[in-house]
Amino acid sequence: MLKLFRDGKIWTIPNLLSFFRLVLVPFIIWAYVGQKNVTLTIILLAVSALTDVLDGQIARRFHMVSDLGKALDPVADKLTQVCVVLCLAFTHPLLWFLLGMCVLRESCMAVLGYITIRKTNKVPGARWFGKVSTVVLYASALALLFFPNMPEWLSTGLVVLCLICVAGALALYVRYFTGLWKQAEQEGKAS
Questions:
Q1: Residue 65 CA: distances (Å) to CA of 32, 53, 122
Q2: Global model pTM greater than 0.90
Q3: For the domain that residue 108 is a member of, what is the CATH number?
Q4: pLDDT tens, residue by residue, 173-189
């Protein structure tokens, strides 16, 4: 049986920051949908983004990288992204397509990640293309929040850019994961 969190690093600062980001998700929804408070929503998103940046930097700098963190950080990212896109989709209908693409990507990523863990006995880390996709999605969401009356051509352009980034990241992750599978296969044959 796979001992996924075998490194014992659970209650580290980076992991606590990721847990905190998970706790923020319902508050972001509450601020935007329940309170219709865009300013509070932006503040909560900024706090979430800041803790996302901090958890990675702290983990690397202070050698607190853990299997739990590698799994928890992207879950917090994706839940935050999906909640933001869902909230904005009620006022920007084109975002329903982006939400669908995000759900498709995350479903694929969950399956690919599970297969990778089973085949390699390792938790794969985030890649640069996933981070770029995240930054583009957050920047676009913040632009839509800050400027709700932006011209339709611009909001459509932002959504299309996000769709391209999300789809591109998925394609590159498929390539990355299958590469890990092949590598594990070759290492297994060499043993």
A1: 33, 14, 13
A2: no
A3: 1.20.120.1760
A4: 999 999 999 998 998 88
